[in-house]
Fold this sequence. Notes:
This protein is an alpha/beta fold. It has helices at residues 23-44, 59-74, 90-102, 121-124, 139-147, 155-166, 186-195, 210-214, 260-263, 278-297; strands spanning 2-4, 10-12, 18-19, 49-55, 78-84, 108-111, 175-179, 199-203, 219-222, 240-243, 247-248, 254-255, 269-270. 37% of the residues lie in helices and 16% in strands.
Amino acid sequence: MLLDLNLGFVILKSASMIQLFAKPVAEKIQKEVKQRVSRFKLNYGRLPKISVILVGDDTASRIYTQRKGELSSLLGMDHETISFPMDVNPELVRDRVRNLNDDPKIDGILIQRPLPKTFREEEVLYWISPDKDVDAFHPVHAGELLLGLPTFRPCTPAGVMELLSFYKISVSGRLVCVIGRSSIVGKPMAALLLQSDATVIQCHSKTQNLKELTRQASILVVAAGRPGLIDASYVQPGATVIDVGIHRTQDGRLTGDVRFDEVAQIASAMTPVPGGVGPMTLSILMQNTILAAERRENKNSSLLISAE
Length: 308
Ligand code: NAD
């Protein structure tokens, strides 16, 4: 069907757009994690445990931390939140992380971002021991990912891969465009796609002619952190569009980087916001935590992706 979106050109309207909801995918992962947690308890006589470090009183961070605790409990895992005031000396937090690294009862450690400006991110990345780094932000994990070695997968990009796989959207041999090059989303996203044999175009804030590149892609992953950046004119008709962005509007609603209603007219599949990528992140975190626990108890247990 032809559609004129007042964009100065006419585009093909997709016959029926599929919404890629996280719910069934997250439920599947959580069910599997829960079973592994039960087995772990039976085999090792203890619960897997995650420690979350929270600095300051950012409302969103508090909510995210609370959700991590709730889901850990739901899946049968133990958890704790260790809170510090905004003006804490970073050295004190580092000492606490060292203690957690050495604590045999702790399997996963996570430092909730954003951190106050007194913390140097390039140093914090090294604090958590790689075997307990369930966010997979440690440079060792980033390097392993890039080299295609077995490693933990960063939660949000891994969540996107799980979504695509669940909905049987193959990336192998396809042109995928990733907007964003952050260390936690854009870069690992491109690495995971490459690992799955996609041909990847990576765009960022200095990319010229963004639209020319995005329109070539049959899968577009948007992680720019810019509300409503992507309208239909950036999207190839029939493409799959994954919106990683999360923003709260002034009236309290959640929206993404993609103008959903407009892009839905031409995309073949899209993630909604909320309910798309967001819930996947937490499920993968739980998956990484049980994996970390299993690996610590059984050095032979395998990681999720392996070298070619
Ligand atoms: P970031 O700010 O660290 O990185 C944004 C990236 O987008 C940068 O690499 C930048 O170069 C690029 N960019 C910015 N404006 C651009 C433009 N106009 N054109 C092309 N590239 C542009 O953000 P981030 O941490 O990677 O997060 C991105 C978005 O994803 C945010 O909205 C964030 O809230 C969201 N997020 C969601 C989850 C989740 O669980 N769903 C997790 C992490 C981040």
